């Protein structure tokens, strides 16, 4: 089976799940700030895990297809390290933070990491500049 034939579909899945991940985190973070996260039901904790699993699998498959693996491609290595920071900060923001101030700043930092991951992915530069991002977006 030639995975390269599935590249357009995998990229669409990957981009869609990236958008969903950011949207769900931001929504959950806002609910946490408002003190209503606990009242939202089981789907609030289940759906992000399902989405993030699809995101991770599609990312691995895309990396395999394009032949760029972590530790071989600096931009992908940087993206994975920032992803780990995003996961840890998101966890502190939504449930592990001991104070509302720690949760708030962890949430802001997680959102910053999320935006940095997107910038790294779009520019394929481990330290993307604003100019390279704008250029990549076609402006």
What would you note in describing this structure?
The chain has 139 residues and is mainly α. It folds into two domains: 1-67; 73-139, no CATH class. Helix content is 76%, strand content 0%. It is built from five helices and no strands. It has helices at 7-34, 43-66, 74-96, 100-123, 130-136. Helix 3 (74-96) runs antiparallel to helix 4. The radius of gyration is 16 Å and the shape is globular. The protein starts with 6 loop residues before the first helix and ends with a helix. The model has no long low-confidence stretch (mean pLDDT 91).
List the helices and strands and how they pair.
Layout: H1 7-34, H2 43-66, H3 74-96, H4 100-123, H5 130-136
**Count of DSSP-assigned helices:** 5
Stretches where pLDDT is under 50 for at least 5 consecutive residues are none
- Average pLDDT figure: 91
Count of discrete domains? 2
Which terms would index this structure?
2 domains, mainly alpha, 139 residues
Short description:
The protein has helices at 7-34, 43-66, 74-96, 100-123, 130-136. It is mainly α and 139 residues long. It folds into 2 domains: 1-67; 73-139, no CATH class.
